[in-house]
Amino acid sequence: MKKQLALMVGLSAALLLGLTACGGSKDSGATKSKTQTITFINHKTDWAGNGKWKAYMKDFNKKYPNIKVKIETITDYAGQMKTRMNSDQYGDVFMLPDTIKPKDFAHFVAPLGKQKTLEKKYLGLTNKSYNGTSYGIPSQLNASGMVVNMKVFKDAGIKTFPKTPAAFIKALKTIKAKNPDVIPLYTNYAAGWTLANWDFTRPGVVGDPAITNKMMTDKAPFEKGKVMYTIYDTLYKVAKDKLIESDPTTSDWEQSKVDMANNKIGVMVLGSWAVPQIQEANKDNADNITFQTFPATAEDGKQYISVGADYNYAINVHSKHKDAARKLINWLVNDSDYAIDNGGLPTVKGAKYPASLQGLKDSGVTLLETAAAPKGKESLFSEIDDASEIGLDTTDKTKQRIIEAAIGNTNESFATIMKDLNGKWANAIKTVNAQ
Amino acid sequence: MKAIRFDYRTQKRLIIVLFTIIPVALLLVFSYYPLVKMVQYSLTNWDGFSPDSKFVGLANYKTIFTDPTYFSVFRTSLYYFVATFFQLGFALLFATILSFKVKFANFWKGVLFFPYLLNGVAIGFIFLYFYKQHGTLDTLLSFIGLKSQIHLWLGDRSINNISLAFTSIWRYTGFNFLIFLGAIQSVNPEVYEAAEMDGANRWNQFRFIILPSIKEIVFLNIILGVSGSLSVFDIPYIMTSGSNGTNTFVIQTIDTAFKYNKLGLASAMAIILLLIVVVVTVLQRIFTREKASR
Q1: Does residue B101 lie in a domain region?
Q2: Do A39 and A77 have their domain in common?
Q3: How far is CA B261 from CA A99, A303, A313, A380, B218, in A?
Q4: CATH of the domain at A384
Q5: Residue A172 counted as domain residue
Q6: For residue B4, what is the DSSP state?
Q7: Range of the domain at B4
Q8: Is A395–B1 a contact, with Cβ atoms under 8 angstroms apart?
Q9: For residue A413, what is the DSSP state?
């Protein structure tokens, strides 16, 4: 018995020593041979699966052989990261979740530099900057509009994509009449997050980069004639005229990409990042998958498309390898093809556009970057949005409610919904300003 | 070294302490500590990640009790509550049948209990494809010539909660069945024999022997059904994520916490649900104790 005990104590002591030795050697090794290991947490699970990240890191190591990068991908990225960021273990480099409010950036993220300096080189820094300091660099910029299968339109005799909501609905009706098997517009109601793309289009629809800032003081942004009304009205009418999938509740995101690639769906409201994913599903038909702006023309008679930052790369404020982390970010933004591979606009100014967006630019659509929020009001919009529980840009409930009313699942009229939204928004402005 | 000898009582105590210390520690760390924290969060306006939050007192509770939208979702629970009675009916029926002499009794028991062993997420997906347009159910109905009866099982607001409640019945009947079966089998078999000799048929046996002897268990199951239907979560969350009128109180709590970033408010909602369930359970205790003492 006594012997056993001694053995146990000895064993655990040895184990403990071994452990500390391990930790020790890691640190000293890092300083001696200068090999540093950093962790990069992101949402690209598909890239972890198809080996794309591995290939990327191989390239990265050609330039920086002394930095070893451990890639960690999470399926429910935004949800899990939020919980994880309550600890200090959220990698060295990570994608900054949008729920983190600008005033809290400094608590979680290491500053990357002055916004003024970085702006000379990069696009889309406004979202993740606070008080003139940038805390994130966008991995890519996305245009928000519609992924369109032009073959479906051409088969119905429509040669060019419509430019007004009325013409758009007429075109979808023609498609439905000519080819009843095709779903003119697929809402992806069940996936939920997809519906937020309708909201993202608003600066392009109205042609005003500061529309979001204006909404922070507008007590009736859902009134007739205003941009959110136009967007939601289009959604309502399309659903009401049965131009969407017949059972939205069980719609399937993965299947929708395949169906669109095979000419069974005409339009989906998404970001430009979706184009390569759909093209991938049927490579022979890739040319017909195009990206278009929301069918609306601004007051000045021109067409715009809103461009906004995707996830931003950021450095954990608790990271012990901030230099190495910064090198990885710089490499990803400046040297890698991340943006192009994901159908986005590169963050570096003057870089080559992806084919889908180049076409759009050539056809005379102006790319519109969202204006920065006024100083000190960087968090205001999301605070109002959360308080109102409308979930503009963030969730699905309001858009689902509109679809449900349109297909006759509820008795609400469109006017009632808009009135209710106006009321909620006005109340939220009041509550947030009172705090 | 001289071995230390404890007397019997000390040994007994020592063993009790040693055996309970780990579960009690786990309970404290993973159940009670989070509960205390949740009460604490429910008094703040914390958003779930911000380093600072403001103490708001009972404002969150006030919001929930004054805004009818937060409580209106309990209407969905009624579907599941009604479903509980169907569930108990089926369970009791099968338990009674299988308590008599039946061929392959163990096989049937396995078949009935199997759904309960399945993971809720798996069940959600099975039934999602079952109810989907052109899914299993639609195919089956058109095969047997009932094409006219096809609905959008999850899309049609007048029936989607029934579809979901049916899934819940399918899942939990096995569990109730097992409890009932256990209770029925604890009845002395000689009583049945005596009853048979007196000319009682199966129905009479059920009515005058089985039902009175398992009355307590039936009541307990109803109470479990009530608290279960108040906190329905996984099946509607996976199949419809609470859209189209299938929202439940728990789904709403999750949305409040993680979609609208109001963790303080969501904690208050969770506490309120906890209190309701505690009240229901206490009521059950009071009722059953009364009966037992009678």
Answers
A1: yes
A2: yes
A3: 8, 35, 22, 14, 41
A4: 3.40.190.10
A5: yes
A6: P
A7: 1-31
A8: no
A9: -
Return the number of CB contacts < 8 Å for A and B. Answer: 79
Per-residue pLDDT of A54-104, as tens digits, reads 999 999 999 999 999 999 999 888 888 988 998 889 999 999 998 888 888
Mean of all residue pLDDT scores within chain A = 87
The DSSP bridge partners found for residue B32 are: none
CA pseudo-torsion sign A356, A71, A136, B265: positive
Distance to chain B for A342, nearest Cα, Å? 26
Contact A192/B243, CB-based, under 8 Å? yes
Residues B158 and B17 in one domain: no
Q: Which residues of B207-231 are buried (b: 16+ CB within 10 A; e: fewer)?
A: eebbeeebeebbebbebbbbbbbbb
Q: Which helix (H) or strand (E) holds A27?
A: helix A2-33
B265 and B67 Cβ atoms separated by less than 8 Å: no
Residues A189 and A278 in one domain: yes
Q: Is residue B39 part of a domain?
A: no
Residue A123: strand, helix, or coil? coil
The 10s digit of each residue's pLDDT in A9-39 is 444 444 444 444 444 444 444 444 578 999 9
- The torsion region of residue A149 among left (phi > 0), alpha (psi -120 to 50) and beta comes to beta
Q: Are B239 and B164 in contact (CB under 8 A)?
A: yes
Exposure letters B47-84 (e unless 16+ CB within 10 A, then b): bbbbeeeeebeeebbebbeeeeebeebbebbebbbebb
A76 interfaces chain B, CB cutoff of 8 Å? no
The domain of A414 spans 143-308+373-434
Burial letters A23-56, b for 16+ CB under 10 A, else e: eeeeeeebeeeeebebbbbbbbeebeeeeebeeb
Give the tokens for residue B261: 């970033």
Cβ(A295)–Cβ(A237) below 8 Å: no
Report how far residue B281's alpha carbon sits from residue B274's, in angstroms, rounded to the nearest whole number: 11
Residue in chain B nearest A88 by alpha carbon: B49
Q: Say if B241 falls within a structural domain.
A: yes
State whether residue A393 sits within 8 Å of chain B by CB: no
Contacting residues of A for B156, CB less than 8 Å apart: 409
Q: Count structural domains, chain B.
A: 2
CATH of the domain at B182: 1.10.3720.10
Q: What is the pLDDT of residue A1?
A: 41
Assigned domain for A280 exists: yes
A152 and A133 fall within a common domain = no
**Contact criterion met (CB < 8 Å) for A247 and B240:** no
Strands (E), A91-211: 93-96, 113-114, 129-130, 133-134, 137-138, 141-149, 183-185
The residue among B90, B125, B131, B132 whose CA lies nearest residue B111 is: B90
Q: How far apart are the first and last CA of chain B?
A: 60
Residues 6 or more apart whose Cβ sits within 8 Å of residue B9? none
Model confidence at A276: pLDDT above 60: yes
Please state the length of chain A.
Answer: 435
A165 vs B7, which has greater pLDDT? A165
Of B243, B256, B259, which is closest to A249 when you measure between CB atoms? B243
User: Which pair of structure tokens corresponds to residue B38?
Assistant: 């949740």
pTM of the model: 0.81
pLDDT of residue A16: 44
Bridge partners of A69, per DSSP, are A38
Of B244, B251, B233, B79, residue with least CA distance to B157 = B244
B255 and A246 in contact by Cβ < 8 A? Answer: no
Q: Which helix (H) or strand (E) holds B193?
A: helix B189-197
Summarised one tens digit per residue, pLDDT across range B124-176 is 999 999 998 888 999 999 999 888 888 888 888 888 899 999 999 999 999 99
pLDDT in tens, B25-34: 999 999 999 9
Which residues of chain A neighbour B258 with C-beta distances below 8 Å?
79, 82
**Beta pairing partners, A185:** A267
pLDDT recorded at residue B293: 52
